[in-house]
Amino acid sequence: MNKYIFITVLLFLSVGISSAQVSIVANKSVQDNGLTTLKVASIFSLEQVKWSSGDRIVVFDQNGDAKKDFYAGIGKDPLSMKKDWMKKQLTGEAKAPETLSSDADVIAKVSSTPGSIGYVNSSNVSSAVKVLLEIK
Amino acid sequence: MKNNSKLLLFAVILMMSTQITRSQGALEIFGFYQGQVVKQKGDLTIIAPLPIGPGGSIVPTTLTQEHPDFTGSNIQQLNLFFRKELSGSFTSWINIQFLNNFSSHSTSGSNVEYGKLSLEEAWLKWDYATALSIKAGYLIPRFNYLNEIQNRMPLLPYVTRPLVYESSLGSTINIPAFVPQKAFLQASGYIPFGLVTGEYSAFVGQSDVNYQTEGVGGSLDSINFKAVGGRIGAKVSDFRFGVSATRDREKSVALNEDILRMRYGADFGFNFMNFFGDAEYISVSLDPVKPSKDLNKSFYYVNIGYNIIEEAYIFATKSHLEDKEVDYLAKGIDGITVGGGIKPIETVVVKMEYSNYSTKDGILPMQFPAGPGVFLPVNAVVNLDYTQYTLGLSVIF
Question: Residue of A22, A48, A86, B217 with fewest CB within 10 Å of its CB?
Answer without folding.
Answer: B217
